[in-house]
Amino acid sequence: MFGRVSRRLFSASLLALLTGCSTLGIGGNSDKQPATDVTVAPQAGATGAAPTGGQTYVAGKCPQVTIPDQSSVYRLYAKGAKDDASQLTYQASLAQATRQCTSDGTNLGIHIAVQGRLVAGPMGSSGKVTLPIHVSVMDNETALYSKTINYTAEIPPGETTTQFLFTEDDISVTGGSGGFTIVEVSFDQGPQKAAKAEKPVRKKRH
Known about the structure:
With 206 residues, the chain is mainly beta. The chain is built from 1 helix and 10 strands. It has a 4-stranded mixed sheet with strand order 3-10-7-8, with no helix packed on it. Strands 4-5-6-9 form a 4-stranded antiparallel sheet, with helices on one face. A two-stranded antiparallel ribbon has the order 1-2. It is elongated and about 50 Å long.
């Protein structure tokens, strides 16, 4: 099991880092962070650790986090409408992101935090909204990890917009990662549930 990190402390520290970033805008993207070394100081008697004579060693890279422009915005429409601004209920966007890594020499644990914004459209209002956020760890074209999380964001009563902080602490990559590995965060743009079609009106026979 890779080193334990306090989730509360982790989220607080990443939130402080993200707070210093620029103001969120619709469709924003995160600045790419270069991959950094993840070092491990093996404990005496630990099994599975690389034989380094008890010295700290580099176990892998902490991948950069990217937010693809084409999937950084998610829109929901009323009545099954699509691309109709007048029927827009909510629009969400992902902007800044950061990460932290731990390793036990065998597995790489990646903890990410992504800041986003949720805005109510003409047909929307305050309340909870489920956002399908997809997280993947890619080594070139190979997916080392892939998961879609249904995250709930909430617009407070009387408001039309809010910011949210999405975190995922359970990303684990076996064998670590190299310099070409990235963490990709995006909205799952799968098909939305279509509204039920209205039954055609039958004309009365005279």
